[in-house]
C-alpha cells in the first residue's frame, strides 16, 4: 500500500495541518499540489495589555516567530516549495535578508530540492545564516545589497533550471495571506487596523489579498486599515524614491527598492492606510520593551509595527476604542547580537555556590 496518511491513526483530530491543508479551498494552487509542510501557521494571537492600555485600544500581537523556522516566511514557503515540486523543479533560489533563506532552506531540505541562497555579504543575522547552512543551502554572499541579490536571483531563474521562490512569485503570497484568515477566524471579523513592518513589501500585499478575499467570501464584514512601517534609512515606500544604499540595524528590512512596491501602495491606498518611517532607536526600544512587558521576544525588524504604534500615538494619531492587530514577524533568537547591544556590556553577575551570596546579588537582602 502506498498511501501517505496526513496523521497517524488515532492521532488527535485537532492537530494543525499547516496552512495548505487548513485553507486549501481559499488558495490558488495547481490542482493536485501535494503539501510540503513543516506545520507552519496557526500562530498565536496574544493580547498586549501594555499596548492596549497605552493606546486605549484593543491590541493583539500576531506572533509569527512561532512558525517552524521562526518567521512568517514559512507560510509562503510551504506553497512556493510545494508548487516548485509539483512543477518538477530540482533546485530553488532566493535573495534574502535572512529569513526567506532560512525558510527556503528548511522546506527545500524537506522536499529534497537543492537550495541556493543569495544574501548581502556581512548583513545577515548569525541565527539566520546558521539556519540556511544547517539545512544544507548553498549560501552565496554578494558584495551588494538585497536589491542586487534579487536582481541576480531573477537572472539565475531566467537562465538556469532553478525555481525562484522570492515573493515576486505569486504563489508565495497565496501562502502568506493565510495570516489574515487566521486573524479573522480567531477574532470573528477583521480588525479595525492592521500594523506591520514592510521591506520587500510581499507581506503587506499578501495580508491585503487575504483580507479582501475573506470579505468577498462573506467570512468578514469589513477590511482593516493597513498601516506599515519602515526604518528611516530604508524608507522607499514612505518617501516615494529608491534608496540606493539602504541602512538600518533592522537588517531584515534593509531594502531600498521593494519588488511589490505597486501592490503595497495599492494596499495602503485601498484600505485608507499608509506608511511611516522610524528611527532605528525607536525600533530597538520597542523590541526591548515588548520583551520586558509582554514576554514576546522578536527580532529588531519585527518590532517596527509596535514602534510605529507608539510613534503614531506620540504624534497624535488616535487608536482609542479600535481593535488593532500588530504582526510581529520573526523571533528574537534570530539576532541575539543586536539584542545584546541593548546592554552595552552584557551584565555578568558571578557568585560562589552559596545561597546567601545569590540572595544578595538578587537584591533579596
Ligand atoms: N520582518 C521580517 C522579520 C522580515 O524578515 C521581513 C522580510 C519583513 C519583516 C518584511 O516583509 O519583505 O514582505 O515586506 N524579509 C525578507 C527576507 C526580505 O529575505 O527574509 P516584506
Q: So what's the oligomer here?
A: single chain
Strand order of the largest sheet: 1-2-10-7-8-9
Enumerate the distinct ligands: ligand F0G
- Unreliable stretches (pLDDT < 50, length at least 5) are none
CA-atom Rg in angstroms: 21 Å
- Largest beta sheet, briefly? 6 strands, mixed
N-to-C series of helices and strands: HEHEHEHEHEHEHHEHEHHEHHEHH
User: What distance lies between the first and last C-alpha atoms, to the nearest angstrom?
Assistant: 68 Å
Structural class designation: alpha/beta
State the total count of DSSP E strands: 10
Overview of the molecule:
- This protein has 365 residues and is α/β, with parallel strands linked by helices.
- The chain has helices spanning 19-23, 49-55, 73-86, 99-111, 126-134, 146-159, 170-176, 178-187, 202-216, 236-239, 261-271, 280-294, 304-314, 336-340, 355-361, and strands at residues 45-47, 58-63, 91-95, 114-120, 138-142, 163-164, 193-197, 225-231, 274-278, 323-328.
- Strand 3 (91-95), helix 4 (99-111) and strand 4 (114-120) form a beta-alpha-beta unit.
- The chain is globular.
- Ligand F0G binds at residues 71, 73, 96-100, 167, 197-203, 252-253, 299, 301-302, 329-330.
Amino acid at each position: 500500500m502506498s498511501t501517505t496518511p496526513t496523521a497517524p491513526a488515532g492521532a488527535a483530530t485537532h492537530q494543525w495541518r499547516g496552512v495548505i491543508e487548513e485553507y486549501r479551498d481559499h488558495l490558488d494552487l495547481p490542482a493536485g499540489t501535494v503539501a510540503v509542510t513543516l506545520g507552519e501557521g496557526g500562530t498565536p494571537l496574544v493580547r498586549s495589555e501594555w499596548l492596549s492600555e497605552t493606546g486605549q485600544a484593543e491590541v493583539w500581537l500576531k506572533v509569527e516567530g512561532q512558525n517552524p523556522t521562526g518567521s512568517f516566511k514559512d507560510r509562503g514557503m510551504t506553497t512556493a516549495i510545494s508548487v516548485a515540486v509539483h512543477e518538477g523543479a530540482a533546485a530553488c533560489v532566493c535573495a534574502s535578508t535572512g529569513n526567506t533563506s532560512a525558510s527556503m532552506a528548511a522546506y527545500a531540505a524537506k522536499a529534497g530540492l537543492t537550495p541556493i541562497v543569495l544574501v548581502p555579504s556581512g548583513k545577515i543575522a548569525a541565527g539566520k545564516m546558521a539556519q540556511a547552512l544547517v539545512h544544507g543551502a548553498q549560501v552565496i554572499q554578494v558584495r551588494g545589497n538585497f536589491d542586487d541579490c534579487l536582481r541576480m536571483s531573477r537572472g539565475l531563474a531566467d537562465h538556469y533550471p532553478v525555481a525562484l521562490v522570492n515573493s515576486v512569485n505569486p504563489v508565495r503570497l497565496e501562502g502568506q495571506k493565510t495570516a489574515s484568515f487566521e486573524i479573522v477566524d480567531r477574532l470573528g471579523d477583521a480588525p479595525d487596523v492592521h500594523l506591520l513592518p514592510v521591506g520587500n513589501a510581499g507581506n503587506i500585499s499578501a495580508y491585503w489579498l487575504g483580507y479582501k478575499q475573506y470579505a468577498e467570501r462573506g467570512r468578514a464584514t469589513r477590511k482593516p486599515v493597513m498601516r506599515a512601517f519602515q526604518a528611516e534609512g530604508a524608507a522607499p515606500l514612505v518617501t516615494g524614491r529608491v534608496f540606493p544604499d539602504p541602512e538600518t540595524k533592522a537588517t531584515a528590512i534593509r531594502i531600498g527598492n521593494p519588488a511589490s512596491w505597486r501592490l503595497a501602495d495599492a494596499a495602503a491606498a485601498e484600505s485608507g492606510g499608509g506608511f511611516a518611517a522610524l528611527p532605528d532607536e525607536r525600533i530597538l526600544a520597542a523590541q526591548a520593551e515588548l520583551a520586558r512587558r509582554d514576554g514576546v521576544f522578536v527580532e529588531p525588524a519585527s518590532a517596527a509595527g509596535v514602534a510605529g504604534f507608539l510613534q503614531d500615538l506620540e504624534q497624535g494619531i488616535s487608536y482609542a476604542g479600535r481593535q488593532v492587530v500588530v504582526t510581529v514577524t520573526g523571533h528574537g533568537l534570530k539576532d541575539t547580537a543586536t539584542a545584546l547591544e541593548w546592554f552595552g556590556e552584557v551584565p555578568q553577575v558571578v557568585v560562589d555556590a552559596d545561597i546567601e551570596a545569590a540572595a544578595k546579588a538578587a537584591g533579596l537582602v
